[in-house]
Amino acid sequence: MDHEDKIISIVEKAMPAVVSIMVGKEYETLLREKPYELMVPHGDHLDLPLPEEELPHTPGGKVRVGGGSGFIIDYG
Q1: Cβ contacts of 51-58, under 8 Å, gap ≥ 24
Q2: Contact present, 75 and 11 (Cβ < 8 Å)
Q3: Range of the domain at 20
Q4: Most C-beta atoms within 10 A of its C-beta, which of 5, 12, 30, 46?
Q5: What 8-state DSSP symbol labels residue 59?
Q6: Residue 75: pLDDT band with limits 50, 70, 90
Q7: Which contiguous run of DSSP H or E holds residue 9?
């Protein structure tokens, strides 16, 4: 069973359902791609990025960069 078939199987068992999605990236990738987004505003300047262990993480261990929720009502 491939990845898509596994997702479809889970959706079929849980429908209709509320879903929560978390998006994460590796800390080193974030530092390389968007270092200023990790910096902390402090008065009139930015402090250095927080250490990785102080940032929120996804269940998979990556730094959480976004997320959302929604309803699955049909997968066709």
Answers
A1: 52/27, 55/27, 57/24, 58/22, 58/23, 58/24
A2: yes
A3: 3-72
A4: 30
A5: T
A6: low
A7: helix 3-14
Total count of domains within the chain: 1
Which DSSP letter does residue 62 get? S
Give me 47's structure tokens.
């402090």
- Confidence bin at 2 (pLDDT 50/70/90): confident
Does this model's pTM top 0.85? My answer is no
Q: Go through the chain and tell me how many residues it has.
A: 76
Q: Alpha carbon of 34 to those of 28, 30, 40, 41: distances in Å? A: 10, 5, 13, 15
